[in-house]
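Contributing new records

If you add data, match the layout below exactly. Sequence lines come first and carry their own label; structure lines follow with theirs. Keep one chain per record. Anything else will be rejected by the validation script.
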Amino acid sequence: VQLQASGGGLVQAGGSLRLSCTAIEGTLSRYPLGWFRQAPGKEREFVAAISWSGGSTLYADSVKGRFTVSRDHGKDTGYLQMNNLKPEDTAVYYCATREALMVVTSPRDYDYWGQGTLVTVSS
């Protein structure tokens, strides 16, 4: 599976962005989808994840209530809706998937990654 994340950009604090994740090769539909981010000088961290069915989601405490993860099987695409963005949300955002059903939060447990899309939030 080869993934591609898109939708990043520059936004003012309080604004919104929607990131998308598509499969260039293979399919997203069978597996959980995770979103991660990496700010300069920091380790990659978990943001949100959704089960293959869409019935189960997980969020990092830092984004709960502001971000929403979803997926559209018909379009074989996953989304991360980001509202009320803060400067500390600035990072490269990655989508990832894994060949197992359980939704997990560790980057080490994901098998396939997209190339990342940059989100910059200005104050």
